[in-house]
Design a protein that fits this description.
single chain, outer membrane lipoprotein receptor (LolB), chain A, alpha+beta, 24% helix, Metallo-beta-lactamase, Chain A, eleven-stranded antiparallel β-sheet, seven-stranded mixed β-sheet
Length: 478
């Protein structure tokens, strides 16, 4: 009896060991089966390219009218996206519908056609746009040691396939009972928001020549929509004909250079431009734009121009992400942000969010966030230099758009109101842009005596921009 029990016990132990050893293999097999079944059901097995068309809405991420408003949108009369999973890359062709003239906020598409080609060194924030597509997700999951779990969401059961991206971010795909990929989510780094969720939902799947494709696509970043497209036509394995974007290539932030505009006043180029002013015991920077790389370049150039002084203030013209994505770097430098009053609570909230996917200087420095606010006017002075900060009243671009005026030097720093043409005698834009007209109105309202304009979007030739260029662009005489 004892021998029989011992034999049974050994048999159970051996069987348990076999199950433990077999479990990873079984899990891998289950994952492979799930991905294969979804790929077959969706017609993705032999899919190399796909092109889909429709209409809908795109949103200007990070370009809100104020800190409490949603991303502004623009309507697409037609929207076509052609994707190559072999290149890999994609092209978007769009025809805009009528955009309301009183649209508030920034950001419109850079052109009717955009082409993006990826390589292994492309940032995950860029690659994710390809692998968030249903077919891209299945292809990526098949080659990235994915795992499978089950989850109920909104009363609906899903098989969840997950893998880890090269950025160490998790990617989850939700496959429904019909083997359709209904949702894909991941996380990307954003210099303003930190670790930011990016999700896409796919509903209303239809058969398009043997390929199952969703009739409705919605993408969100940070909980807000960035794309909402109704699909009407799909072509599988059509020629992609992707061409590299003009002027593409280049790596990293361009080296900073500077020009002395006046005693103790330095223009830091290239665009996005910044201004460094030599106060008695410290430096004031006007604008901390774009990225940590650009902010570091501005800081280094300012310290070359004005050695042995700390940067105490950085003036932020407005909260659009391209003009504020270097601010965390200035916080790490120990600087106080000077910005429009409604941005304070927003900045305090988002600048405290974690940046674990791409840690920046502030992630390590953990400096206390210091913010001073501007209403309609604020003056920074050391008794010698004076910087007057004014809100541009009536701007459709941003509710808290600030301009910096140096009265002694007759210099005005502005962002997104007047963007000079590439050549000094280039033809003015007609009709006159609303921002340009608004800047002229504010200069006249405030009775500012301006000789030199410093646009943050500085012309590539690096010329000194006279106020005469502004008057010409606005169709005015001083």
């Amino acid at each position: 009896m004892i021998k029989q029990f011992a034999a049974l016990l050994l048999s159970l132990i051996f069987a348990s060991a076999v199950l433990v050893l077999a479990a990873p293999g079984a899990q891998a097999q289950d994952t492979k089966t799930v991905i294969s079944a979804a790929s077959k059901a969706m017609g993705a097995d032999d899919l190399k390219t796909i092109s889909y068309s429709g209409n809908g809405t795109e949103f200007s991420f990070g370009q809100a009218y104020n800190a409490n408003s949603p991303w502004p949108s623009w309507p697409d009369k037609s929207y076509t996206r052609t994707i190559s999973y072999e290149a890999p890359g994609w092209r978007v062709d769009r025809v805009l519908d009528t955009i309301p003239p009183d649209r508030k906020g920034g950001g419109l598409p850079p052109g009717p056609t955009q082409t993006v080609l990826l390589n292994p060194n492309s940032a995950w924030a860029q690659q994710a746009d390809l692998w968030l597509t249903p077919y891209g997700f299945l292809k990526a999951a098949a080659s990235n040691n994915a795992t499978v779990t089950s989850q109920t969401m909104g009363g609906k059961k899903f098989t969840v396939v997950s893998f880890t991206a090269p950025s160490k971010a998790k990617v989850n795909g939700y496959i429904n009972a019909d083997n359709m990929v209904e949702r894909v989510e991941t996380w990307i780094d954003n210099p303003m928001l930190g670790d930011t969720e990016w999700d896409a939902t796919y509903t209303g799947y239809k058969d398009f020549g043997g390929v199952k494709f969703p009739a409705h696509i919605v993408q969100n970043q940070g909980g807000s929509p960035i794309l909402d497209i109704n699909v009407t036509d799909v072509r599988a394995n059509a020629p992609a004909n992707l061409q590299p974007p003009q002027g593409g290539g280049g790596g990293g932030a361009p080296a900073a250079t500077s020009q002395k505009l006046a005693d103790g006043v330095y223009l830091i180029l290239p665009a996005y431009a910044a201004l460094a002013v030599d106060f008695k015991d410290y430096i004031v920077i006007v604008e901390g734009p774009q990225s940590e790389a650009r902010a570091n370049a501005i800081i280094e150039e300012a310290k070359r121009d004005i050695p042995n002084k700390p940067i105490r203030y950085v003036v932020n013209t407005h909260n659009h992400f391209d003009h504020s994505s270097g601010l965390r770097t200035f916080i790490a430098e120990g600087a106080t942000i000077v910005t429009y009053q409604s941005n304070k609570a927003y900045y305090e909230k988002i600048f405290a969010q974690p940046h674990t996917l791409a840690p920046d200087r502030q992630s390590e420095a953990k400096k206390k966030i210091s913010i001073e606010t501007v209403g309609d006017k604020k003056v920074l002075t050391d008794g010698n230099h004076i910087i007057e900060l004014y809100r541009l009243v009536g701007s459709n671009h941003n509710d808290g758009l600030l301009a910096a005026y140096l009265p002694k030097e007759k210099i005005l720093v502005e962002a997104d109101a007047f963007n000079p043409p590439a050549q000094v005698n280039g033809p003015p834009v007609m009709p006159v842009p609303a921002g340009t007209a608004n800047l002229v109105d504010n200069i006249r309202r405030l009775k500012l005596d301006v000789e030199t304009i410093v646009p943050i979007h500085y012309p590539a030739d690096g010329r000194k921009v006279s106020v005469a260029e502004l008057w010409r662009a606005a169709g005015k005489t001083n």
